[in-house]
What does this fold into?
Amino acid sequence: MGRKWAKTQFKEAFKRGLGSSYLMLKESNNREKYRDIVLWCCLRNTCYDTQCEGGRGSFLYQAIFLYENKDYFEEAIIRKFMQKNLDMGLFSQLCELLYLFAADGSMKAREALYEKYNALLGSLSRRNSSAVRESLEWLSVWLTSLDGFPAFKSIVIQFGEYSLNNSEAVNMDWFYSNAKNKLGAKRVDTFLQSNAAKSDYVKAFLNSVIHTVMQNERSVEPPTLEKLIEAAKEKQSRFRSRGLALRFSRTATEDELLRLAEYAVQETDLEIKLELLWTFKKVRFPLDEQFIFELTESDNEAIRDVAFEMLQHVPSDRIHGYAIDLIKQRKELANALSLLCYCYTAEDETILLEGIQSLPVTYEDGEWHGVFMDVEKLLDNRPVKMNSSLFIYMYRQTLCSYCRHKLIKRMSKRKILSQEILEECVNDSYEDTRDFAVRKLGKKPGK
It folds into this structure.
């Protein structure tokens, strides 16, 4: 007899990718009770951060495989896959699921993958968003996983033809590098180089990836203070400004940091001030620390958030009492809990645990995620003693399977990783967690 879970309990665990949910489903004598939840997760991207987590396709397919009627899932997945304007996280998940169906012999899944590929390729001639191009490249990667080198050659020719017939080539550098890793760098480059003289299409593709590689290999000059200030004032380019700020923090002299701090203090435009302060998330602010404490009470939420990160570089005896007072008042709770992790003492265990348990863990509000990551950093400090209940809570609650993997490794180092959790991790949604558990247990996945 398998363990019985309430549907809500199963859904919460399954959408997080916890191996315990798969084991429950595997042992259940009434899997149909949970069938709609499995499908619900197949048709939505339940990853918190797909870029870090790598997707849930394999985990979902493993659950689907427990059901006799796999058509129920496959047909619904194909219908969703054929829709337009899908979120990239969901699109990549559906690609992987259909790849797994096709690899197991499904002609319906194979046909759906190629039908979608042809539709995306055909739409490239029209003006469209970068999402269409990204989807096409992602799908191309899965097709080379499915059909190997023949698929690679066909895709190269098709993209080379597009490049020749249009003024702007499609950026396929990830497809190219993935093919080299998957099919062999020597084999891929030999094909491209030997066929470039015979085929204008192959030549066009090769030229496009060579151009991209050369661009990526160009050295980037360290940003100057003047360039940083200039970028901070360009309100349409916040991503560039913050990238420069973080690079500046690694190369700036003490004098440059002092001049930047003085400029930031004097700046009255809060949006520009925020960009100028971004550097001091990574290095200590060189002026009076009272300025930072004042910023933590700013009416501007983004300024407050940066100020709390700046406080992490202040001596712990100054910030400890401040963090504790804020937590007790339930004021700036997430920022205060993160700050406490940088000045933690043994007496703080209860207030830290209770504070973390009071944070809502949702996809919409990401404050919990930053706090969880700061707690994980704290746990790297081996002399710090903590009750295992904090670890277990974070393991069960986090929506990020990548963070769960890091937490599992920290639990192992502290020798508080139970046999039960290791058994669950063999079937976790995150591949590295599965591999880690398999090595620890000396067993094969799914056994």
